[in-house]
């Protein structure tokens, strides 16, 4: 906490002095679900990217105020350091150290191997990886030799995710500190390259990223369980003219369960994106998904994801639709989003989304039903 406070102070002083370039953005977001304004947030973002010789640095701070908070029905505010890192990329090796986000996934939507950073599940849908990742103090090392690359990631202290305040109307109780909190995490990844294709395998030790909720009858609610696990996984990507083929796989042999036992959990996603030459700016994607969820009953599930993305007016207007459909639990998540550049630093984003979930599905911990939201941004 003290290091983050020092970083925020240094970032503000650097921006005020004008000694280094500064990127600034102001945002106003509102969301409406089931007769309630679940979000009304003003957000200010300040980013600096000074270069010190061959070393690139990035620092970013968020300051926001939400006067319509879904979980508590009260106002909330925060000032937080979102990034503070330095990196160096050489011909054969590189290093990145500091508060940052790292993601290994190749697929869109549900990305099973995106496990390095924990998540904020309280205020954002679980597919919003660009927003809900919580930055962590990570050290990332690369070494390349020929067509191969080795990557090592170390995290000196694990963090719990931020969870919803209620699930299906039942309070989620604050986590009780346990021996695993703030323990180190880390892993290693090997990648091989051939023309426009790559494939990776990795192993990563961490606390479970998927929240496991256990009944606590004495406290009258659900208590989240986070325990150490070791995951292994693989990914691939291959581009061929108009097509890009992608895949992610994750296996956690010792995932905790709501009952207190453990069993193997897995997820695999394979699909392709098609960007036809005859329709500039159009991308169509489809993915098949299979998983074994960390629940006590029969948990195998299959599903599919679909993506349609189209840009217009020299990329000033972008439209995107995503759909995830589970065929066993019959739950789904759908989103339609429009983004428009208005000129002079202004842009507008409008989205509609909806989800329905079986009680056994990971989607069930998130608010259900339709939601509409909009965000107005000004960058300067």
Task: Provide a quick synopsis of the model.
By secondary structure, the chain is mainly beta. The chain is 5% helix and 59% strand. It has 2 domains: 1-84, no CATH class; 90-310 and 359-373, Beta Barrel (Porin).
Overview of this protein structure:
By secondary structure, the protein is mainly β. It has two domains: 1-84, no CATH class; 90-310 and 359-373, Porin (Beta Barrel), CATH 2.40.160. 5% of the residues lie in helices and 59% in strands. The protein has two helices and 23 strands. The strands form two sheets. It has an 18-stranded antiparallel barrel. Strand 20 and strand 21 (332-343) form a beta hairpin. The longest helix has 16 residues, at 2-17. The mean pLDDT is 85.
CATH topology of the largest domain: Porin
CATH top level class name of the largest domain: Mainly Beta
Number of domain units: 2
- Percentage of helical residues? under 10%
Largest sheet: 18 strands, antiparallel, barrel
CATH architecture assignment of the largest domain: Beta Barrel
Which structural category fits the helices and strands? mainly beta
Overall, the morphology is globular
Uncertain runs = none
Task: List SSEs in N-to-C order.
Answer: HEEEEEEHEEEEEEEEEEEEEEEEE
Using only CA atoms, what is the Rg? Answer: 21 Å
The fraction of residues assigned to DSSP E strands is: over 45%
Number of helices: 2
Count all strands and give the number. 23
Overall pLDDT confidence:
85
What is the CA-CA span between the terminal residues?
Answer: 29 Å
**What quaternary form is this?**
single chain
